[in-house]
Design goal:
About 25% of the residues lie in helices and about 30% in strands. The protein has about 375 residues and is an alpha+beta fold. The protein has a domain of about 80 residues. The chain is globular. It starts with about 20 loop residues before the first strand and ends with a strand.
Length: about 375
């Protein structure tokens, strides 16, 4: 997942709800054509205020190019909503619960497809994508709570819309930028059980305010605070040791970065036009920033920024150290992902050792509390 924290805000009110919230997930963008099928469909054309109901099996096709050209250079416009009396719809060979919204894409090069469904149904298809359905049930429960907390924060804060500066008509997208979820048949008995055994449970600050709850694949021994990886301090987070994940996932890794490539990236990130020598000071994996001299000027450069610039294939995690050698820079690291919040492979090992999901969450989020909102 990829995150931008420059505009994060916390919800200032306590959240209670008797009903399960609905979530709108963008599952595809910039489509040229959309074809949706199902039984007893209802199609609502929004700008035309036209509603048509179809009996029996029906397939509805939507030409996105011809329909979106009339709305070019405007904010995204919802064009249509399609739903079924059965509560199930088909798209691209996959079945989805809930209903579909079709709207113009931000680039006006087609349309976006948004799936609206209950938060709990959403989570049953997310768990096998963000973890593995074969993992211990207590690890899946911990993932369900973390993902529910993150999604609810997105819903209540309208964070995605705020990032665009206007209403975007969805809460998050199904991608590594936010969270990845699947379709109806991705859910399994274990992911359904993990979701409904923790129904309505989220992590919150101790005064019940919502906060985004992050997770990643493998920390490599220690997690990071959000401000160590991104930009803003985020209340409720603490870096913790993780002696659990080393048995699982990607092993320790090593890379060699040519000096010219390293210098080019550093120069671009520091916005220096003058070409100067880069001199790296002693580093270790416990540091979240690199200490270096660019010419005669001392600089602090976050390792996460270098990872973002060079890519995940070069730097798989933010847990690494760099040593300068004659022919280049030797990078040695561990883990995979940004390293903030819950370590998924760590959660797996904790569950294998007999710890329950509450113990797993309290280890990675000691400054947050488990809170049932519905």
């Amino acid at each position: 997942m990829k995150y931008y924290l420059g505009w994060l805000i916390l919800i200032s009110t306590t959240v209670y709800s008797k009903e399960i919230p609905m979530i709108k997930v963008r599952i595809a963008n910039s489509l040229k054509n959309v074809e949706i099928s199902g039984y007893d469909l209802k199609r609502s054309l929004i700008p035309k205020s036209s509603i048509v109901q179809f009996e029996g099996v029906k397939k509805i096709s939507f030409n996105c190019v011809s329909n979106t050209k009339f709305y070019k250079n405007k904010k995204p416009v919802r064009l249509a909503t399609i739903e079924s009396m059965t509560g199930m719809l088909n798209w691209e060979g996959h079945r989805f619960k809930g209903l579909f919204h079709i709207q113009t894409s931000e680039k006006f090069d087609g349309c976006d497809l948004i799936n609206e469904l209950t938060l709990e149904d959403y989570l049953t298809t997310l768990l096998p994508k963000e973890m593995s359905a074969s993992w211990p049930i207590e690890a899946l429960k911990a993932q369900a709570v973390a993902a529910r907390s993150y999604a609810l924060y997105k819903i209540k804060s309208k964070q995605v819309s705020k990032s665009y500066g206007y209403m975007i008509n969805y809460d998050l997208e199904s991608s590594e930028k936010h969270q990845v979820n699947g379709s109806y048949f991705d859910a399994t008995e274990s992911t359904i059980k993990a979701t409904y055994d923790t129904s309505g449970e989220i992590l919150s600050l101790f005064d019940n305010r919502l906060t985004p709850v992050f997770f990643h694949s493998k920390c490599g021994g220690q997690t990071f605070r959000p401000d160590e990886v991104w930009s803003n301090f985020l209340q409720g987070y603490k870096a913790v040791d993780c002696p659990y994940c080393h048995k699982h996932g990607t092993k320790n890794w090593k890379r060699v970065i040519p000096k010219d490539e390293f210098k080019s990236n550093v120069t671009d990130m520091l916005s220096f036009k003058k070409k100067s020598e880069v001199r790296l000071l002693q580093d270790n994996s416990e540091k979240s920033s690199l200490n270096l001299y660019y010419g005669e000027k001392f600089q602090l450069l976050k390792k996460s920024k270098l990872r973002s610039a060079m890519g995940r294939s070069v730097l798989p995690s933010n847990n690494y150290s760099i040593k300068e050698q004659k022919d280049g820079y030797i990078v040695e690291g561990s883990g995979y992902g940004h390293g903030v919040g819950m370590c998924q492979f760590g959660a797996k090992e904790m569950a294998l050792q007999g710890l329950n999901y509450k113990q797993i969450l309290s280890h990675y989020f000691p400054n947050l509390k488990l809170y049932k909102i519905y």
